[in-house]
Design a protein that fits this description.
The chain is of the alpha+beta class. It is about 25% helix and about 20% strand. It contains nine helices and 14 strands. The strands form three sheets. An eight-stranded mixed β-sheet has the order 1-2-10-7-12-5-4-3. Helix 3 packs across helix 6 and helix 4 crosses helix 6. The structure holds 2-oxoglutaric acid and fe (ii) ion. The site of 2-oxoglutaric acid has 11 residues, from strand 5, strand 11 and strand 12.
Length: about 350
Protein backbone atom coordinates (compact mmCIF):
# COMPACT_ATOMS: atom_id res chain seq x y z
CA UNK A 1 0.00 0.00 0.00
CA UNK A 2 1.28 3.49 -0.81
CA UNK A 3 2.41 5.43 2.27
CA UNK A 4 -0.23 7.80 3.55
CA UNK A 5 1.02 11.41 3.35
CA UNK A 6 1.38 12.99 6.78
CA UNK A 7 -0.70 15.98 5.82
CA UNK A 8 -2.99 16.29 2.81
CA UNK A 9 -1.90 19.92 2.55
CA UNK A 10 1.09 20.54 0.30
CA UNK A 11 2.56 23.99 0.88
CA UNK A 12 5.70 23.36 -1.17
CA UNK A 13 9.11 24.81 -0.33
CA UNK A 14 9.07 27.85 1.96
CA UNK A 15 12.20 30.01 2.24
CA UNK A 16 12.77 31.30 5.77
CA UNK A 17 12.77 35.09 5.41
CA UNK A 18 15.39 35.67 8.11
CA UNK A 19 17.82 33.27 6.44
CA UNK A 20 17.12 34.85 3.06
CA UNK A 21 17.86 38.26 4.48
CA UNK A 22 21.20 36.98 5.84
CA UNK A 23 22.36 35.02 2.81
CA UNK A 24 20.80 36.76 -0.18
CA UNK A 25 19.59 40.17 1.04
CA UNK A 26 18.33 41.41 -2.30
CA UNK A 27 16.48 38.24 -3.36
CA UNK A 28 12.71 38.18 -3.15
CA UNK A 29 11.46 34.72 -4.16
CA UNK A 30 8.43 34.77 -6.42
CA UNK A 31 6.19 33.37 -3.74
CA UNK A 32 6.69 36.57 -1.75
CA UNK A 33 6.07 38.98 -4.62
CA UNK A 34 2.47 40.14 -4.48
CA UNK A 35 0.22 40.65 -7.47
CA UNK A 36 -0.10 44.32 -8.45
CA UNK A 37 -3.47 44.83 -6.74
CA UNK A 38 -2.15 43.51 -3.44
CA UNK A 39 1.08 45.50 -3.28
CA UNK A 40 1.22 47.88 -0.35
CA UNK A 41 1.09 51.62 -0.40
CA UNK A 42 3.88 52.92 1.81
CA UNK A 43 3.94 56.33 3.47
CA UNK A 44 1.12 57.69 1.34
CA UNK A 45 -1.07 58.85 4.16
CA UNK A 46 -0.51 62.26 5.73
CA UNK A 47 -0.20 61.65 9.43
CA UNK A 48 -2.71 64.26 10.52
CA UNK A 49 -4.22 63.70 13.94
CA UNK A 50 -7.64 62.92 12.46
CA UNK A 51 -6.04 59.85 10.94
CA UNK A 52 -4.46 58.55 14.15
CA UNK A 53 -6.27 55.77 15.95
CA UNK A 54 -7.79 57.01 19.24
CA UNK A 55 -6.03 56.69 22.60
CA UNK A 56 -7.98 55.46 25.63
CA UNK A 57 -6.72 56.08 29.14
CA UNK A 58 -7.79 53.02 31.14
CA UNK A 59 -6.96 54.66 34.47
CA UNK A 60 -9.63 57.28 33.77
CA UNK A 61 -12.21 54.53 33.23
CA UNK A 62 -11.20 52.67 36.37
CA UNK A 63 -10.53 55.40 38.88
CA UNK A 64 -11.27 58.73 37.27
CA UNK A 65 -13.94 61.00 38.73
CA UNK A 66 -17.45 60.72 37.30
CA UNK A 67 -16.91 63.26 34.52
CA UNK A 68 -13.58 61.78 33.48
CA UNK A 69 -14.86 58.22 33.35
CA UNK A 70 -18.02 59.28 31.49
CA UNK A 71 -16.09 61.16 28.83
CA UNK A 72 -13.56 58.30 28.46
CA UNK A 73 -16.46 55.86 28.10
CA UNK A 74 -17.90 57.97 25.26
CA UNK A 75 -14.47 57.97 23.65
CA UNK A 76 -14.33 54.19 24.00
CA UNK A 77 -17.75 53.94 22.35
CA UNK A 78 -16.74 56.06 19.35
CA UNK A 79 -13.34 54.31 19.07
CA UNK A 80 -15.03 50.91 18.86
CA UNK A 81 -17.82 52.11 16.58
CA UNK A 82 -15.88 54.33 14.18
CA UNK A 83 -12.42 52.73 14.22
CA UNK A 84 -12.56 49.19 15.64
CA UNK A 85 -9.04 50.00 16.87
CA UNK A 86 -7.58 52.08 19.69
CA UNK A 87 -4.42 52.28 21.78
CA UNK A 88 -4.74 51.90 25.53
CA UNK A 89 -2.47 53.77 27.93
CA UNK A 90 -2.20 53.51 31.72
CA UNK A 91 -3.35 49.91 31.32
CA UNK A 92 -1.64 48.79 34.55
CA UNK A 93 0.79 46.31 32.98
CA UNK A 94 4.34 46.93 34.19
CA UNK A 95 6.74 48.28 31.59
CA UNK A 96 9.27 45.70 32.80
CA UNK A 97 6.88 42.90 31.78
CA UNK A 98 6.33 44.46 28.34
CA UNK A 99 10.10 44.65 27.94
CA UNK A 100 10.59 41.09 29.21
CA UNK A 101 8.21 39.55 26.65
CA UNK A 102 9.88 41.50 23.85
CA UNK A 103 13.27 40.30 24.96
CA UNK A 104 12.37 36.59 25.07
CA UNK A 105 10.53 36.84 21.75
CA UNK A 106 13.45 38.56 20.07
CA UNK A 107 15.95 36.14 21.64
CA UNK A 108 13.87 33.27 20.23
CA UNK A 109 13.78 34.69 16.69
CA UNK A 110 17.55 35.29 16.78
CA UNK A 111 18.27 31.59 17.49
CA UNK A 112 19.73 29.47 14.68
CA UNK A 113 17.10 28.12 12.29
CA UNK A 114 17.72 24.48 13.37
CA UNK A 115 16.76 25.40 16.93
CA UNK A 116 13.55 27.18 15.89
CA UNK A 117 12.61 24.35 13.54
CA UNK A 118 12.32 22.01 16.52
CA UNK A 119 8.87 23.56 16.94
CA UNK A 120 7.41 23.41 13.44
CA UNK A 121 3.96 24.72 12.66
CA UNK A 122 2.37 21.87 10.69
CA UNK A 123 0.57 22.96 7.50
CA UNK A 124 -3.04 23.83 8.24
CA UNK A 125 -2.39 24.42 11.96
CA UNK A 126 -1.70 27.62 13.91
CA UNK A 127 0.71 26.63 16.66
CA UNK A 128 4.51 26.52 16.54
CA UNK A 129 7.14 28.30 14.45
CA UNK A 130 6.60 29.03 10.78
CA UNK A 131 3.86 30.29 8.49
CA UNK A 132 0.18 30.07 9.40
CA UNK A 133 -2.76 30.12 6.96
CA UNK A 134 -0.86 28.58 4.02
CA UNK A 135 -2.76 25.83 2.24
CA UNK A 136 -1.23 25.41 -1.22
CA UNK A 137 1.97 25.58 -3.19
CA UNK A 138 0.96 28.61 -5.19
CA UNK A 139 -0.33 30.77 -2.35
CA UNK A 140 1.61 34.01 -1.82
CA UNK A 141 3.57 34.14 1.44
CA UNK A 142 3.94 36.77 4.14
CA UNK A 143 7.39 38.29 4.82
CA UNK A 144 7.22 37.18 8.43
CA UNK A 145 8.20 34.46 10.88
CA UNK A 146 5.71 33.54 13.57
CA UNK A 147 5.79 31.73 16.85
CA UNK A 148 2.21 31.01 17.90
CA UNK A 149 1.03 29.20 21.02
CA UNK A 150 -2.32 28.32 22.56
CA UNK A 151 -2.27 29.46 26.20
CA UNK A 152 -5.67 29.06 27.88
CA UNK A 153 -7.45 26.87 28.73
CA UNK A 154 -4.58 24.45 29.26
CA UNK A 155 -6.03 21.68 27.10
CA UNK A 156 -5.40 23.78 23.94
CA UNK A 157 -1.66 23.80 24.65
CA UNK A 158 0.72 21.63 22.72
CA UNK A 159 3.64 21.41 25.18
CA UNK A 160 5.94 20.03 22.45
CA UNK A 161 5.69 23.37 20.69
CA UNK A 162 6.75 25.50 23.66
CA UNK A 163 10.41 26.37 23.04
CA UNK A 164 12.88 25.52 25.81
CA UNK A 165 15.18 28.29 24.58
CA UNK A 166 15.45 31.05 25.63
CA UNK A 167 15.15 29.56 29.13
CA UNK A 168 12.80 32.30 30.37
CA UNK A 169 10.38 32.12 27.42
CA UNK A 170 7.70 29.91 29.02
CA UNK A 171 7.58 31.64 32.40
CA UNK A 172 7.52 35.06 30.73
CA UNK A 173 4.64 34.03 28.46
CA UNK A 174 2.73 32.75 31.53
CA UNK A 175 3.20 35.98 33.44
CA UNK A 176 2.48 38.17 30.42
CA UNK A 177 -0.61 36.20 29.43
CA UNK A 178 -2.16 36.29 32.86
CA UNK A 179 -1.72 40.08 32.96
CA UNK A 180 -3.13 40.48 29.45
CA UNK A 181 -6.07 38.23 30.36
CA UNK A 182 -7.06 40.58 33.19
CA UNK A 183 -6.74 43.53 30.82
CA UNK A 184 -9.04 41.82 28.30
CA UNK A 185 -11.61 41.11 31.00
CA UNK A 186 -11.46 44.71 32.17
CA UNK A 187 -11.75 46.11 28.67
CA UNK A 188 -14.70 43.85 27.87
CA UNK A 189 -16.45 45.12 31.00
CA UNK A 190 -16.10 48.72 29.82
CA UNK A 191 -17.02 47.74 26.28
CA UNK A 192 -20.23 46.18 27.67
CA UNK A 193 -21.02 49.34 29.65
CA UNK A 194 -20.34 51.49 26.56
CA UNK A 195 -23.15 49.54 24.84
CA UNK A 196 -25.49 49.99 27.85
CA UNK A 197 -25.16 46.29 28.64
CA UNK A 198 -24.64 44.82 32.11
CA UNK A 199 -20.89 44.99 32.76
CA UNK A 200 -20.40 41.23 33.19
CA UNK A 201 -22.26 40.33 29.99
CA UNK A 202 -19.21 39.00 28.13
CA UNK A 203 -17.49 37.53 31.18
CA UNK A 204 -20.58 35.47 32.00
CA UNK A 205 -21.13 34.41 28.43
CA UNK A 206 -17.55 33.45 27.48
CA UNK A 207 -16.98 30.60 29.96
CA UNK A 208 -13.26 29.84 30.33
CA UNK A 209 -12.07 32.16 27.58
CA UNK A 210 -9.66 30.93 24.93
CA UNK A 211 -6.39 32.84 24.76
CA UNK A 212 -3.54 32.47 22.29
CA UNK A 213 -0.35 34.43 21.74
CA UNK A 214 1.40 35.04 18.44
CA UNK A 215 4.78 36.66 18.08
CA UNK A 216 5.45 38.06 14.63
CA UNK A 217 8.97 38.92 13.48
CA UNK A 218 9.35 40.88 10.26
CA UNK A 219 12.95 41.08 9.00
CA UNK A 220 13.87 44.07 6.81
CA UNK A 221 13.04 43.57 3.14
CA UNK A 222 14.95 45.11 0.23
CA UNK A 223 11.65 45.64 -1.67
CA UNK A 224 8.93 46.52 0.84
CA UNK A 225 6.87 47.78 -2.09
CA UNK A 226 6.52 44.23 -3.45
CA UNK A 227 5.73 42.18 -0.34
CA UNK A 228 3.39 42.13 2.64
CA UNK A 229 4.49 41.38 6.20
CA UNK A 230 1.04 39.99 6.98
CA UNK A 231 -1.90 39.62 4.58
CA UNK A 232 -5.01 41.76 5.12
CA UNK A 233 -7.38 40.15 7.61
CA UNK A 234 -9.68 40.74 10.52
CA UNK A 235 -9.07 38.74 13.70
CA UNK A 236 -11.43 35.92 14.67
CA UNK A 237 -11.17 36.86 18.36
CA UNK A 238 -13.55 38.89 20.52
CA UNK A 239 -10.72 41.35 21.15
CA UNK A 240 -7.02 41.38 20.33
CA UNK A 241 -4.19 43.03 22.26
CA UNK A 242 -1.16 43.94 20.15
CA UNK A 243 2.16 45.09 21.48
CA UNK A 244 4.46 46.78 18.99
CA UNK A 245 8.14 46.15 19.78
CA UNK A 246 10.09 49.12 21.10
CA UNK A 247 12.12 50.74 18.38
CA UNK A 248 10.30 48.76 15.69
CA UNK A 249 9.48 50.52 12.45
CA UNK A 250 5.89 51.49 11.71
CA UNK A 251 4.31 48.43 10.13
CA UNK A 252 0.70 47.90 11.18
CA UNK A 253 -1.87 49.47 8.84
CA UNK A 254 -5.63 49.48 9.23
CA UNK A 255 -8.21 49.96 6.51
CA UNK A 256 -10.21 53.08 7.35
CA UNK A 257 -12.65 54.49 4.78
CA UNK A 258 -10.73 52.60 2.09
CA UNK A 259 -7.37 54.09 3.06
CA UNK A 260 -4.58 52.08 4.69
CA UNK A 261 -3.77 54.10 7.80
CA UNK A 262 -0.47 53.34 9.61
CA UNK A 263 -0.63 52.89 13.38
CA UNK A 264 2.10 55.00 14.98
CA UNK A 265 3.53 53.21 18.01
CA UNK A 266 2.93 55.09 21.28
CA UNK A 267 5.52 54.18 23.96
CA UNK A 268 4.19 51.52 26.36
CA UNK A 269 0.69 51.65 24.86
CA UNK A 270 -1.08 48.49 23.70
CA UNK A 271 -3.12 48.41 20.52
CA UNK A 272 -6.61 46.91 20.97
CA UNK A 273 -8.85 45.81 18.16
CA UNK A 274 -12.34 44.42 17.85
CA UNK A 275 -12.45 40.89 16.42
CA UNK A 276 -15.12 39.14 14.34
CA UNK A 277 -16.71 37.56 17.43
CA UNK A 278 -17.50 40.93 19.00
CA UNK A 279 -18.85 42.13 15.67
CA UNK A 280 -21.34 39.25 15.71
CA UNK A 281 -22.26 39.68 19.40
CA UNK A 282 -22.89 43.40 18.94
CA UNK A 283 -24.89 42.76 15.75
CA UNK A 284 -22.38 44.82 13.79
CA UNK A 285 -22.47 47.90 16.03
CA UNK A 286 -18.77 47.37 16.76
CA UNK A 287 -17.09 45.94 13.68
CA UNK A 288 -13.84 44.06 13.22
CA UNK A 289 -11.54 46.06 10.98
CA UNK A 290 -9.27 44.79 8.25
CA UNK A 291 -5.58 45.28 8.95
CA UNK A 292 -2.21 44.14 7.59
CA UNK A 293 1.50 44.57 8.21
CA UNK A 294 4.04 46.04 5.82
CA UNK A 295 7.82 45.69 5.95
CA UNK A 296 10.69 48.17 5.98
CA UNK A 297 13.83 48.42 3.89
CA UNK A 298 16.30 48.69 6.77
CA UNK A 299 14.47 48.00 10.01
CA UNK A 300 13.02 44.84 11.43
CA UNK A 301 9.85 44.74 13.49
CA UNK A 302 8.37 42.64 16.27
CA UNK A 303 4.77 42.40 17.38
CA UNK A 304 3.29 40.33 20.19
CA UNK A 305 -0.36 39.62 19.71
CA UNK A 306 -2.90 38.10 22.11
CA UNK A 307 -6.24 36.79 20.87
CA UNK A 308 -9.01 36.57 23.46
CA UNK A 309 -12.20 34.70 22.59
CA UNK A 310 -15.06 32.73 24.14
CA UNK A 311 -14.73 29.08 25.08
CA UNK A 312 -15.13 26.80 22.04
CA UNK A 313 -18.35 25.17 23.22
CA UNK A 314 -20.24 28.49 23.45
CA UNK A 315 -23.17 29.10 21.12
CA UNK A 316 -23.28 32.70 20.06
CA UNK A 317 -25.11 35.20 17.92
CA UNK A 318 -26.18 38.85 18.17
CA UNK A 319 -27.21 39.88 21.69
CA UNK A 320 -30.99 40.40 21.83
CA UNK A 321 -30.42 43.84 23.44
CA UNK A 322 -28.77 44.97 20.19
CA UNK A 323 -31.43 43.74 17.80
CA UNK A 324 -34.62 45.71 17.10
CA UNK A 325 -36.66 46.90 14.14
CA UNK A 326 -34.06 49.54 13.27
CA UNK A 327 -31.20 47.08 13.75
CA UNK A 328 -32.32 43.79 12.25
CA UNK A 329 -30.37 40.67 13.07
CA UNK A 330 -27.36 40.49 10.69
CA UNK A 331 -25.66 37.27 11.81
CA UNK A 332 -26.82 33.74 12.50
CA UNK A 333 -26.24 31.76 15.68
CA UNK A 334 -23.40 29.25 15.63
CA UNK A 335 -20.96 27.35 17.78
CA UNK A 336 -17.79 29.37 18.43
CA UNK A 337 -15.55 26.29 18.10
CA UNK A 338 -16.90 25.76 14.59
CA UNK A 339 -16.13 29.34 13.68
CA UNK A 340 -12.61 29.07 15.07
CA UNK A 341 -12.02 25.93 13.05
CA UNK A 342 -13.35 27.63 9.91
CA UNK A 343 -11.12 30.66 10.57
CA UNK A 344 -7.88 28.70 10.92
CA UNK A 345 -8.56 26.45 7.94
CA UNK A 346 -8.99 29.32 5.47
CA UNK A 347 -6.36 31.72 4.16
CA UNK A 348 -6.36 35.31 5.40
CA UNK A 349 -8.55 37.28 2.98
CA UNK A 350 -9.73 40.54 4.44
CA UNK A 351 -13.05 40.05 6.19
CA UNK A 352 -14.17 37.16 4.01
CA UNK A 353 -14.16 34.63 6.85
CA UNK A 354 -17.04 36.45 8.51
CA UNK A 355 -19.32 35.38 5.63
CA UNK A 356 -19.57 32.23 7.76
CA UNK A 357 -21.85 34.12 10.14
CA UNK A 358 -23.51 36.76 7.96
CA UNK A 359 -27.15 36.40 7.12
CA UNK A 360 -27.38 37.08 3.39
CA UNK A 361 -29.87 39.82 2.60
O1 LIG B 1 2.23 42.78 13.36
C1 LIG B 1 1.20 43.44 13.33
O2 LIG B 1 1.18 44.62 13.63
C2 LIG B 1 -0.09 42.79 12.92
C3 LIG B 1 -0.31 41.45 13.56
C4 LIG B 1 -1.69 40.92 13.38
O3 LIG B 1 -2.56 41.56 12.88
C5 LIG B 1 -2.00 39.54 13.83
O4 LIG B 1 -1.07 38.83 14.26
O5 LIG B 1 -3.19 39.16 13.75
FE1 LIG C 1 -4.54 40.67 13.22
Amino acid sequence: MAPVPLSPINVGHIDDVQELRKDRPSTIPDRYVRDMVERPTLDTVPLSSSLQIPIIDLSKLIKGNKDQSQSELLKLYSSCKDWGFFQVINHGIETSLLEAIEKVAMDFFMLPLEEKEKYPMAPGTVQGYGHAFVFSEDQKLDWCNMLALGVEPHYIRNPKLWPTKPAKLSETIEMYSSNIRKLCQNLLRFIAVSLSLIQDTFDEMFGVAVQAVRMNYYPPCSRPDLVLGLSPHSDGSAITVLQQGKGSSVGLQILKDNIWVPVQPVPNALVINIGDTLEVLTNGKYKSVEHRAVTHKENDRLSIVTFYAPSYEIELGPLPELVDENNPCMYRRYNHGEYSHYYITNKLQGKKTLDFAKIST
